[in-house]
Amino acid sequence: MPTVFDFERPVIELESKIAELKSFANEKGLSLETEIGTLEQRASELKQFIYGNLTPWQKVLIARHPERPGSLEYIEVMITDFEELCGDRLYGDDAAIVGGIGRFEGRPVTVVGHRKGRDTKENLARNFGMAHPEGYRKALRLMKQAEKFDRPLICFIDTPGAHCGLGAEQRGQAEAIAKNIMVMSALKIPIIVLVIGEGGSGGALALSVGDRILMQEHSVFSVSSPEACASIIWKDSARARDAAEVLKLTAHDLLGLKIADDIISEPLGGAHRDKEEATTLLISAVSRTMAELTAMGRDQLLDARYQKFRKIGVHLVSDSSGA
Amino acid sequence: MVFDFFKKAKYFTVKQDVKRDIPEGLWVKCDLCNEILFTKDLERNHKVCQKCGHHFRLTVEERLHITLDPDSFSEYDAELESSNPLDFPEYSGRLATAQEQTGLREAVITGEGSIGGHRVVVAVMDSHFIMGSMGSVVGEKITRAVEFAQENRLPLIVFCASGGARMQEGMLSLLQMAKTSMSVGRHSEAGLLYISVLTDPTMGGVSASFALLGDIILAEPGALIGFAGPRVIEQTIRQKLPEGFQRAEFLLEKGFVDRVVPRPQMAGTLAGLLSLHERGGV
Ligand SMILES: [Zn+2]
């Protein structure tokens, strides 16, 4: 049973009505093309309206949709000759982050990304995409390897946040994230960051310090999950929806804040409604960006990356010395 | 007298009637051991409980006073304050209240001074200002201080005290982690010394960025240091955390800090470390 949200129920109802009418017409050998055409037109308009006016909270729900394609679904199609590489060489392997090497349009690249499960079993194995320090350290190892062999890095962001627990703290969750952020900021290779689901907190940022941050239309990126934010500010995690409305976490908001560099369109209703189309759109965005970045000199690339992050928030600081 | 130093510092704009941890009064109770302490004694002892050694949280001015050589501090970017960039509900009021209560414009003061005669760029966070949380202004002030240190080939010391990223500035806060860490990385690449001092509390977005990137990382005894807050972890694992979890001594044992240094020895330790990194020093 596919997951259907309340706000899309009118679309789903209309679509099933059309399907019924079609099979009825088939059975009885009737020609109902005009009626079906009218209904299809209405369904299309309804979809445009509903999916074109999603609230931030509705986007959070779509970003977390259990059937939404994740890092591995995209890697399977867009990366050829993919070889997964495991382990941080210090403690263990963390399945919440996947990494490896392969080819994008013939060019060798390194890929790392968060990985949520597609079902309960995979979710348990991958800790719902919430990494431990060994996950970030595996990513770091592969990033440095990419730099050594001078191949571009592609990062997939899809995590509620870093794991909160005893082992994670004991093994230095904060240090692992901090180190990734600092090292990424100076890696001498092009870095493309793709936000494909939900990006949450430092656990997402640890793979996000790149030359371009591209966000899928219905992805979100937030300082912390709306639930955690509501709990911190209002002491009430049930107010997650309210938090989502004010956090400015949608791709559109973040483009406006110059945090996202571009928005990648999704099929109407979200990537899960047409995975093939979603992948095609993603690939063409990566292809364009890759051409842009590989044409830049290394010094130019690193300076631009520094400036991109250096400028964030600067124009929003007010100088009160005159007051 | 404790605050004489600030009256003389030309660039320091902190008001004199600042509210402190310790209420105006002769006596105060220790949070940890419940001992009733004579306020004057406590202040003389760098706000460390004489009975149990508990380190009370300090304000920026108290920290600068016990750390820097007298009259050596001059402040950078004193005028910067947040403009509520996301129009987050109730945030402007929260900022105004924090400003009124602390006499500060934001949760960090940056500038330069000397410790044991060694010139150094310092950033001091104050947990009394919205839990020392990092938004655009904290990130910007720290980054500017780091860049100044790099341009002038100066060592850098940051006293961390923060609950993490400031929720009310959303992703702008999260990205300050990248901005600050990036500048610290460049300062490091230039062969310069960065000492991070972790004080109670150093959590979340601050611990997961510049706080844990020092060449040398010191911590005050008993300071809470970690990524996730203890309450969040307890909710996740549905059990009480062991005694001493995420405290400075625990991090020392796990290998994430170089030393736990009691407050009365901190300035001397810093002076010694700065001296060992002095250029041309024999
Ligand atoms: Zn005590």
Give the topology, please.
The complex is a heterodimer of chains A (323) and B (282).
Chain A lengths: L8 H20 L4 H20 L3 H8 L7 H8 L1 E5 L12 E8 L2 E8 L5 H6 L7 H16 L4 E7 L6 H5 L2 H13 L5 E10 H5 L6 E5 L3 E3 L3 H9 L5 H7 L4 H6 L5 E3 L10 H20 L3 H13 L6 E3 L4
Parallel strand pairs in A: 3-4, 4-5, 5-6, 5-7, 6-8
Antiparallel strand pairs in A: 1-2, 2-3
Chain B lengths: L3 H5 L18 E3 L6 E3 H6 L15 H8 L6 E3 L3 E3 L8 H12 L5 E8 L2 E8 L10 H16 L4 E7 L7 H20 L4 E9 L1 H4 L8 E4 L10 H8 L10 H7 L4 E2 L2 H14 L6
Helix pairs in contact in B: 5-6
Tell me what you see in this structure.
The complex is a heterodimer of chains A (323) and B (282). Chain A has 2 domains: 6-53; 60-311, 2-enoyl-CoA Hydratase, Chain A, domain 1 (Alpha-Beta Complex). Chain A is α/β, with parallel strands linked by helices. In chain A, strand 5 (191-200), helix 9 and strand 6 form a beta-alpha-beta unit. Chain A contains 14 helices and 9 strands. Residues 1-19 of chain B have low confidence and may be disordered. The longest helix of chain B is centred in the middle third of the chain and has 20 residues, at 170-189. The N and C termini of chain B lie far apart (36 Å). Chain B has helices spanning 4-8, 39-44, 60-67, 91-102, 136-151, 170-189, 204-207, 230-237, 248-254, 263-276; strands at 27-29, 36-38, 74-76, 80-82, 108-115, 118-125, 156-162, 194-202, 216-219, 259-260. Chain B is globular and about 50 Å long. With 282 residues, chain B is an alpha/beta fold. Classes of the chains: A alpha/beta (323), B alpha/beta (282). Chains A and B meet through helix 7, helix 8, helix 9, helix 10 and helix 14 of A and strand 4, helix 5, helix 6, helix 7 and helix 8 of B. Strand 9 of chain A pairs antiparallel with strand 4 (80-82) of chain B, so a sheet runs across the interface. Zinc ion (ZN) is lined by residues 30, 32-33, 35, 49, 51-52, 54 of chain B. The site of zinc ion has 8 residues of chain B, from loops.
